[in-house]
Amino acid sequence: MIRLRSAQPGDLSAVERLLTDVDLTTAGVADHVDGFIVAEDAASIVGCAGLETYGAGGLLRSVAVRPDHRSNAVGRQLVERALDRARESGVQVVYLLTNTAADYFKRIGFESIQRDQVDSAVQQSQEFSTESCDSATAMRLMLGLALGPGGSNR
To answer: Radius of gyration over alpha carbons of the chain, in Å?
Structure first.
């Protein structure tokens, strides 16, 4: 059974290993592990999603699920939990960068934008400075338009 929980400092190596295994950057993860949510199955981390907050802007990052746990809505649950956390923190707009999952995030309600439309504070994230993210698609979600469980607006 999958259980979602807030990441603890001791989860850092497992989170970084998962991100490396799915070819996502680990830049800045150590500095923001307290903003991560992990999915556990039998005490093994099988998924994660991170949220970095920058005032009214947030960066959803490092959404990853082990291949053997995909298609079980684990990714969607992680994203929903991260968006809930963003709302609770007063974040109004969530941004992300993706090289491979733009269609997935569009189904959740994110829209593609130009990189210069990303809040300048959010652009200070280490993720924005990594070479692997140079060609990534920038996306944005206005939280008032976010979809809740079952696809309904909150």
So the answer is: 14
What CATH code is carried by the domain that includes residue 141?
A: 3.40.630.30
Looking at the 3D structure of the chain, how many domains does it have? 1
Q: CA 139, 134, 124 angle in degrees (round to 5)?
A: 70
Res 144: pLDDT? 67
Question: Whole-angstrom Cα distance, residue 95 to residue 133?
Answer: 13
Element (H, E) at 65: strand 57-65
148 has a pLDDT exceeding 60: no
pTM: 0.89
Task: Judge whether 36 and 63 are in contact, CB under 8 Å.
Answer: no
pLDDT digits (tens, 9 = 90+) for 58-101: 999 999 999 988 878 999 999 999 999 999 999 999 999 998 89
The enclosing H or E element of 39 equals strand 36-41
